[in-house]
Structure formats: structure tokens, C-alpha cells
Prior knowledge:
Elements lengths: L1 E6 L6 E7 L7 E8 L5 E5 L7 E9 L2 E8 L3 E6 L1
Parallel strand pairs: 1-7
Antiparallel strand pairs: 1-4, 2-3, 2-5, 5-6
Amino acid sequence: MNVRGTLTAYAGQTFSFRIHGPSPEEKHIRTETVTVGADGRFNLTVRNLSVSDLNIYLQVSPYFMYLIPAASNSNVTYYFE
């Protein structure tokens, strides 16, 4: 799975992407740490996941979280402001 995106408001910051199965009740599969570049772009590549559909949670503050639904064999691009 490849997730590329832009988070211009969070350029230069490091975040954890929590990868879960297809519903909130699914167990946590893994956590990946990604640093957003100075231009606001990030890239997350994860291989060998055990389920086909995923929910990826990106917590950018104690009060705000992004949800990125994706298939484990997909290439997705997101742009957040």
C-alpha cells in the first residue's frame, strides 16, 4: 500500500499513522511514523498487510484526526490543508 499526501499546515512535523482493519472494532495492525517534508508532502509505504481493507488514522492534534480508508494493495493520494 502506498499513501502519498500533502499536509501543508504540518510541514516538518512527525506523525504516527495507526493502521487498523476495515472497521473501528478491528484490531490495530501496526503503527508507522512519517515525517512531513518542508513542502508539506509525505509518503507512507507498507507491505505485507494481513487484511485487504484498511482504516488509517492520523492524529495531528489531541482534538483532530484524519481517517484515510484504503485497500492494502492500493496507491492513494490525499491533499489536506
